[in-house]
Amino acid sequence: MTASFTPNGIITLTTDFGTRDPFVGLMKGVILSRYMQAKLIDLTHEIPPYRPAVAGFWLARSWQYFPTGTIHLAVVDPGVGTDRGLVAITVEGQLFIAPDNGLLEEVAVSADRAEWRRVDLERLRPVLPTIASNTFHGRDIFAPLVAEIATGRLQVEQVGDRLDRLISKSARSFGDEIAGEIMVIDHFGNLITNIEALELQRIPEPKIHFHGQVFDLHRTYGAAKRGEVIALINSFGVLELAQAQGNAQTTLAATLGERVVVRGG
Amino acid sequence: MTASFTPNGIITLTTDFGTRDPFVGLMKGVILSRYMQAKLIDLTHEIPPYRPAVAGFWLARSWQYFPTGTIHLAVVDPGVGTDRGLVAITVEGQLFIAPDNGLLEEVAVSADRAEWRRVDLERLRPVLPTIASNTFHGRDIFAPLVAEIATGRLQVEQVGDRLDRLISKSARSFGDEIAGEIMVIDHFGNLITNIEALELQRIPEPKIHFHGQVFDLHRTYGAAKRGEVIALINSFGVLELAQAQGNAQTTLAATLGERVVVRGG
Amino acid sequence: MTASFTPNGIITLTTDFGTRDPFVGLMKGVILSRYMQAKLIDLTHEIPPYRPAVAGFWLARSWQYFPTGTIHLAVVDPGVGTDRGLVAITVEGQLFIAPDNGLLEEVAVSADRAEWRRVDLERLRPVLPTIASNTFHGRDIFAPLVAEIATGRLQVEQVGDRLDRLISKSARSFGDEIAGEIMVIDHFGNLITNIEALELQRIPEPKIHFHGQVFDLHRTYGAAKRGEVIALINSFGVLELAQAQGNAQTTLAATLGERVVVRGG
Q: Which residue does chain C place closest to B16, by CA atoms?
């Protein structure tokens, strides 16, 4: 059997650690201590605290832009210090490592085939350090683990046994209606939903309902008049509410997790 | 004819994308997919949304600190999805690429000579991907474009035709008075204006007028007493209002774009 | 005598510059202009403005995760533009450079032996540029200085004379009581004190007193119920007040610098 993953040296980092403290810098120090050639890319460190699903949402729509051989490390870990496990999945020649808390499910769904493994810390004891802290596994476990894999000294097949997991997409369509929610409010105040372009295609002349208002589906931001709120399929293939040169979050008084419904016109 | 630009591998990024979402990380993924050796430097991703002039203000005062051969990519792009073009300018052996919305004008003015080119996406179709999104040109057009140039596979001369553009500095002096505005409020709350040291020299014993108060021109922060608000020529060669070990923005209740006037003493 | 420091190419950056403006990017441009192979790692740029002690707190607990030969540059510099000096210290094969304002004292205490040197800008004039600005020494003095050392062209022994400095840890224990303060409020709202695990061990059944409430010492976040506020020794070896999956800062209405006391049970 050939190896399912050959590292290219790139390691992306996705966390809810923020940038106020040196937490991310310390993970990078640990990685460079083991692998000076690592190419470290910050995806984001501002996942809302303790919301693994948001990290999964972005990772599932980001990996396609990285080359084969990239390692994606995601640490959003409300259960740190308990006995929650760690998982690794391989998707089209890229590797993802995260706490086993559902974070990687949407990544698995985003590809035709995902190979799951549990990370067996007992078996890895010879290459990983004694666990120094009960609270900062990003620095003390995840960082040395991805560094060892990135160097090629540790094979993905060695981190632990295969897991037999089949994740399927949750259906959100009922009859002529699709019900989704606001998954992300981005830097511009755009309201990004989990309703996908493919789902929308089923519905003739779709109208988007939110907070008692109804929005038409537009083609792009630029086509809208300044200040107009529009619905569009964004560059990640999902439905988004946006205000042209404005902030839809404040204009619509929207919050994370609110319901968005699509119905035929 | 010799090439006007030889890449050194450094690509700086300036955007209004913020760091909350993975937008910048995705641009880096696209660049590394085409050019693994790229040295990616974040200039800032917190340009106020949709304010290309602020990006231009900083780029015009930043490029001097980078080596010959650096590529500066700036994406502050309120017109994304419309038919606004893209431009490239070469200034003293460095290359700048941005939407054609005025962003690069101050960069052109900051050097003796700037060579402008329009970016011809039709001509570049063989090397650039089919345009996948109407809204994220940073990821889908700008990132692969700068990567191709950084590798040396694409010459600046090949991106499109020369443009015959002459940008001249706008005069802000009238008689004994200079009228400027607050261009940037920085992280420390310093109020950075667009009034330059050279303009100030023409005025004997200059007094700075703002919000009905009058300030003397000081030499440095350190010379001021803690809490004192002073005017000084900052390290970028422009007039700034600052509070020693304090925050001038909150102390003076200042906002972006407000008028600052200098008159003789 | 053998050199006490051999650079490995890594330079970490710790400042209070924030990320809104291109200040950090400019320091990186200056460093790369002199040393293209530099590996630049951001530790944090969000030290509270003008608080060198917070930078020192983090550096003293961070350097252990970087390899021998790393240079740590810290610029939190309320006295910029006055005649405050610059210092360099060598600690277990790593080098730290900062303004001489107390920032590096806790780093010196964190190791068995620290070698102090003053940075003699007069002597360095041949390799450092004419000082261009009175206000941005990070860009104009510190950045070129660390770049020259990182390349190996400038030895630590050449930056200036040895300083005979002995810093000792300040005692915070009196009888059965330890009095500390909140040094850092992190991204998660955790209240991180300067009370160390070693000090706590002296006290049987320690109880933590803050704002009139009393907290027990727990082993980890994960063991607590959601919403519970607990005290624990964190992954940096100091006492911390944290709320499980919540924000202790807002729940306890805490602010930086407030007093935390430990007494026997």
A: C20
pLDDT classification of A167: cutoffs 50, 70, 90: confident
pTM summary value: 0.95
Half-sphere exposure at residue B17, Cβ-oriented, CA atoms within 13 angstroms: 24
A125–B contact, CB cutoff 8 A: no
Distance separating alpha carbons of residues A15 and A77, to the nearest angstrom: 9
Long-range contacts of A143-147 (CB under 8 A, 24+ apart): A143/A26, A143/A27, A143/A28, A143/A30, A143/A31, A143/A73, A144/A30, A144/A31, A144/A34, A145/A86, A145/A97, A145/A119, A146/A11, A146/A31, A146/A71, A146/A73, A146/A97, A147/A11, A147/A30, A147/A31, A147/A33, A147/A34, A147/A35, A147/A38
| Identity at C71, one-letter amino acid code | I
CB within 8 Å of chain A, chain C residues 16-35: 19
Considering only the beta carbons, identify the residue of A8, A65, A223 that sits closest to B139. Answer: A65
DSSP structure class, residue C63:
G
Count of helices and strands (H, E) across chain B: 8, 15
The pLDDT of residue A2: 46
Q: What is the pLDDT of residues C104-147, one digit of tens each?
A: 999 999 998 999 999 999 899 888 866 656 679 999 999 999 99
Residue A241: list chain B partners with CB under 8 A: none
How many other CB atoms are found less than 10 A from the CB of residue A256?
14
A142 contacts in chain C (CB < 8 Å): none
pLDDT one-digit tens code per residue, B194-206? 999 988 988 889 9
